[in-house]
Amino acid sequence: MGYSADTPYFSGLGDAILLAKDFAQNDDCFIFLSDRLPMEGYSQILLNFHQNICDGIINVKQVDNPKFYGVIELDVNNFISSIDEKPENPKSNYAVSGAYLLGMNMSSRLFELLEIQSKIPLENGQEHTLTRIIQQILEEGFKLKINEMKREILDFGRPESLLAGNRLLLAEIKISDPFYETRQQSGSLLDSKIVPPVFIGKNVKISDSVIGPNVSIGDNAVLKKCILSESVIGDGVNLKKIISSSSIIGDYCILESLIKKSITIGDSSFITTTKSNSF
């Protein structure tokens, strides 16, 4: 992470991990990516690491389109023989699934290689990756195995996978009041219909709207005269006369009079036909 003038840029996962060098270089390192959430948790990867004679474990899942991910290839003894980042012609369908447990006997070498890589100048669009470093570690003889996830892994890195993850989470959680009848009684949900499953955050006000199914709404939002389904709505949004499905609306957006499906709108966006910045 750095800045060019006042614009932040991300130099890659490798450099992000390097920031932890002083804390972790002589210890076991557990690295997980926040945009990947395994439904079965991380306990199995820890168990596999302690049960196997290896230097580390990489979390994987078999997927239909591995070219969108880092791809693992195994040897005849089920050790990892190679790792390749988003290959055009994947050698397997084992996709890296956002978690790595690297033992203390290799952590010092990991950070040495990350440090060397960080000094390589980057051209436009390039990154200092973790994948390249792991491949070098494999070539140096370290032994890594996989932990294969069986249940779904929620991938929040792309709009379509974020919406799919939202559906899975809503199917898993148990909401004691799925129609939010208590909110109707309190007055924060007026003349509106909830079609479960729906998650509504704290201090949300909804009126004259139809919400659901598969909609998650963050805290402190205000929705008036909206029809929303299969969507994720951020914190602090203010929506009026919005009809949409399969959409993602970021935090603190102000939107009015919009009929469109499959939209992705970033944080603090302002799209309205009125002259003021609030309703």
Automatic annotation (TrEMBL):
In Pfam terms, one family for this protein is NTP_transferase
Q: Which residues belong to any copy of the Nucleotidyl transferase domain?
A: 12-169
By its UniProt entry, which InterPro entries does this protein fall under?
Answer: Mannose-1P_guanyltransferase (IPR050486), NTP_transferase_dom (IPR005835), Nucleotide-diphossugar_trans (IPR029044), Trimer_LpxA-like_sf (IPR011004)
Q: What is this protein called?
A: Nucleotidyl transferase domain-containing protein
